[in-house]
Amino acid sequence: MPSSENQGSFSRIPFPSFRRGIFSIRSDQIHSVESEQGGSSSQESGGSELRSFQRLVSSRFSDLSVANGEEFLSVSWVRKLLDAFGDCQDEFRAVLCSRKEFISKQSQDKILSDYFDMNIKALDICNATRDGIQKIHLWQRHLEIVVSALDPPQQRMIGESHLRRARKALTDLSLAMLDEKDTGSVFSIRNRSFGHHNRTKDHPQRSPRHSRSLSWSVSPSWSASKQLQLIANGLVPPNANEVAATNGLATLVFTMSHVLLFVLWAIVAAIPCQDHGLQTNITIPNLFPWSRSLQTLHSRIMEESKKRGRNSNNGLLKEIHQIEKGVHHLSELLDSPQLPLSEEHKEDVRESVGTLSLVSKTYQTELGPLERQLREVFRKIRTCRAEGLEFLANT
């Protein structure tokens, strides 16, 4: 199966257009602004846009870094993270457009080509993370059975049949949350992606070559950690000569590359992903306005991972941690209870079920939007890369 290292074939695949191309919009706006400023140079305008982009990155990730303990690494927080990335990606695309007249020298061409090559690995990580969300959907189905068995309508008395049903669902949930290599889960073979078309009346099943993602689905031997490390290894802060020689493009691309790497690392850490990448060596420079925010976020995520220990294999999402704790506690409560349950025992069961019910409701409302946001991130990365490569090929 072709992997993300097979870059040549990927770059030749045609892409759908995304509104208007990144190198074919806003030129009229740029010339209009220049005339209003009395003929200020495009270089000065470009410098202003670069500073604005740096401030945007700093602001969005600063907001994420100050999240309180209740929100941090929750599903809602991850959605805000993807929102922040989407805003940065849109602004990056707009600045590239405004500076198209400068993208002609060989050094600048190489900077962009390297960045677009990095995007291939990013698309694979998006696909693998999407599979992780599907795993959580599976957990939710077992969780709903547990809740319905122990929280019957009209507050009926919990009987032996309820306990048997709950114990079986807890066992199934515990097995589902084990490492997929041990369980032989259907998710150990990744053959779905954002490019896959489901079979419906209007969309009949297509041959495999047409249903694959544009980044290709990841294989069982694929590693998120290795992909992240490959991206990290290519990130070197530009020196003053490179910045000057590229009219600031080197700084722009380095910033966006770091944003891309950090967001991918964070979602892989939060959501179950094949060989997650917490051990990836990420070096965040101190040279930029956004450096402190990313350093704070990196430290908080690593600290949370140390607290979880081996239990972090399923991801650091707050809701996953709540499930793991709730399932363990509830399993102990239901191990060999005497019927009828004592009032104290009933209260302990209700408390545990209440916590798991809240998590289940969060998953019901948040997982769908989260998956759609991840799909949108995939689309933006893919389309920006395609349009950029097309422009570079025609210059």
What can you tell me about this protein's structure?
This protein is an all-alpha fold and about 400 residues long. The chain has one domain. It is built from 14 helices and no strands. α3 (about 40-65) runs antiparallel to α4, α3 (about 40-65) packs parallel to α11 and α5 (about 105-150) packs parallel to α11. The longest helix has about 50 residues, at about 345-395. The protein is elongated, with a radius of gyration of 24 Å. It starts with 6 loop residues before the first helix and ends with a helix. The relative contact order is 0.17. Residues about 1-40, about 180-190 and about 195-215 have low confidence and may be disordered.
The figure for the number of domains is 1
Integer-rounded radius of gyration:
24 Å
Task: Tally the beta strands.
Answer: 0
Which word captures the global form?
A: elongated
Core attributes:
mainly alpha, 395 residues, elongated
Summarize the structure.
This protein has 395 residues and is an all-alpha fold. The chain has one domain. It contains 14 helices and no strands.
Give the helices and strands, then pairings.
Layout: H1 7-11, H2 27-36, H3 42-65, H4 75-98, H5 106-150, H6 160-176, H7 180-183, H8 208-211, H9 224-233, H10 240-245, H11 249-270, H12 291-308, H13 318-333, H14 343-393
Helix pairs in contact: 3-4, 3-11, 3-12, 4-11, 4-14, 5-6, 5-9, 5-11, 5-14, 6-13, 9-11, 13-14
